[in-house]
Amino acid sequence: MSTMAREFIISLYLLMYKLLFNFFKLFPIKNKIVFVASFKDNNLYIYRKLNDKQFPGEVVFLCKESCFHSIKEKTSVPVYVIESGNFVHELKAAYHLMTAKTIIVDNYYGFLSVAKFKKGVECIQIWHAAGAIKNFGLLDPTVEQRPKRAQKRIKKVYQNFHKVVVGSDVFADIFKKAFNVKEEQLLRFGYPRTDFFYNQTAQEKKREQFYQKYPQFKNKKIILYAPTYRPNPEDNQLKLDIDQLYKSLKDEYVLFIRLHPSVSISEINYFVYQDFVFDFSNKASINDLIVVSDLLITDYSSIPFEYAILEKPMIFYPYDLEKYQENPGIWAKYEDIVPGPVAFLTKDILRYIKSNDFDYEKYRAFKEKWNKYSKGFSSENMVHYLLKRHNME
């Protein structure tokens, strides 16, 4: 689809929302919290804590298709799907957005560019990751290459982020640039989804459930390989020498591959490596895999920021670093962001694993730096703020 055609479709979509917003703005504000979700974890942690505190107001979820079913299964409140072409759901979404006192968003949503909220309404951005290596928001170099209309629209979306939840001072500084927000807009609460990594009982339960389902892995060390998504589809290929890893590690280890939801790779011959390589992209949650794995291999993913809380070893494998630095780009020098070690070839990965060459002090420093405010009470912090906003505490 050409850029012009894409912009035309977006303009029609936003015109629809603008008309709906203008109409529903005539309705009164209610004691209501609306979650706009692309990801489930942060939102569900807040929702459960609101239930624990017996929040008496309305709660509504507006979900992208990626998390619609999983959130609908775990809640007992209205859940609507957005950006799916379902006009009835979009209509209800517009109504709820214009009649809520608080809106919690976890991503970029174009319709926010045409939303003019009433006085007293607050839109809170709670990012879906605990840290970032790649550029996003206004730091993304591709923003400047987009049409002027698109650039204006993007900035309007960020202007509607009245508050932004952060888990660390370093991430706070990134958000200031990425979303053009000021210090007084930041809520240093930490991320609710990280509460799980401070809850030993919940983790043990996850382990038990996992090994009940997959008892064959009980006596093996688990390597989790979780590469991130590349903007160009042709770059989403497996650049790990499975055969080399298999020959050297098969007796002691198994390799779990967890691909980004937008990626699928069919080039692995799982039959040849059937006792070593396992695709866990859709078979278990990322929390399950973080808990049961003994070692993480990744590149530009946000997983290390949570994995570090458990202080387990990580290897960073940015085999295409030069290309990735061009698009989407990295906010600082790669080696200065990650706690290492950094490997560019499979043989280097093997060397680190075999020698157990990991600096745990670096992992602890990385954990403290990026999770300064994520200490196991983030859901409590967030809900306390919400209840205060809604005059419930």
From TrEMBL:
Record-linked InterPro entries: Glycerophosphate_synth, TagF_C, TagF_N, Teichoic_Acid_Biosynth
PANTHER family tied to this protein: TEICHOIC ACID GLYCEROL-PHOSPHATE PRIMASE
Descriptive protein name: CDP-glycerol glycerophosphotransferase family protein
Taxonomy, superkingdom: Bacteria
UniProt KW keywords: Cell membrane, Membrane, Teichoic acid biosynthesis, Transferase, Transmembrane, Transmembrane helix
Membrane topology: Peripheral membrane protein
Keyword 4Fe-4S found: no
The organism of origin for this protein: Pallidibacillus thermolactis
Pfam families, A to Z: Glyphos_transf
Location within or outside the cell: Cell membrane
Main location: membrane
Transmembrane residue ranges: 12-29
Record's keyword annotation contains Transcription: no
Family the UniProt entry places it in: Belongs to the CDP-glycerol glycerophosphotransferase family.
